[in-house]
User: What shape does this take?
Amino acid sequence: MAAVEELEAKLGYSFRDRALLKQALTHRSWAFEKDPGHQGALSNERLEFLGDAVLGLVVSEILIERHPELSEGRLSQLKARLVSARHLHERARQLELGPHLNLGRGEEVTGGRSKPTLLANALEALIGAIYLDGGMASARAFIESRILAGGGLEGTGPERDFKSRLQQFAQTRGLPAPRYRTISASGPDHCKVFTVEVAIGEHLTARAEGSSLKAAGQRAAEILLNRLSEEQPPKDQ
Assistant: This one.
């Protein structure tokens, strides 16, 4: 196992109880070889269970804070991606957790240090260990800096550009181009709420609120797009 100090520097967190760190990095294959009767207590599986819960709570809280304009369904989609095994494996790989793991001989010879599921589980166990060692504030800081940073929390991207999708929808059905206008902006400068209306023609409209004009416009476009998708048949039907 590489130096503990090296790993803690990568994690951005120093453990008061390094036994928790060791347990978080211990796969059940190693624990079984050392003590077959108590592998559950020695392995990282219990910490993984806890870390999964902490991760889900923290990600949900952060999404609610940063995206007041998103619906429950959109929040769920974004959360699912951020807590997915695929995302966690990528973050664990960036942290180079593999060389620090305690593995049994079987896992060692079959490439366990690079297995996606094993690495993702170890990262969840580390979250659980940090929570027990330093509390929720420390766990949240680790999740924000090592798991969520650069993970697309802004919620942008082609699949979420509802304004472009609404524009394309209108074109393919021979409808006028969408028009946007700001209805209102209320609240103090540090916490403004904007209301934006989108209209296609004279009668197809939708309004939405958001923490920015961009967010409100995207939400309004999403609402109108969903409505039209249910009501408007293609032009040639």
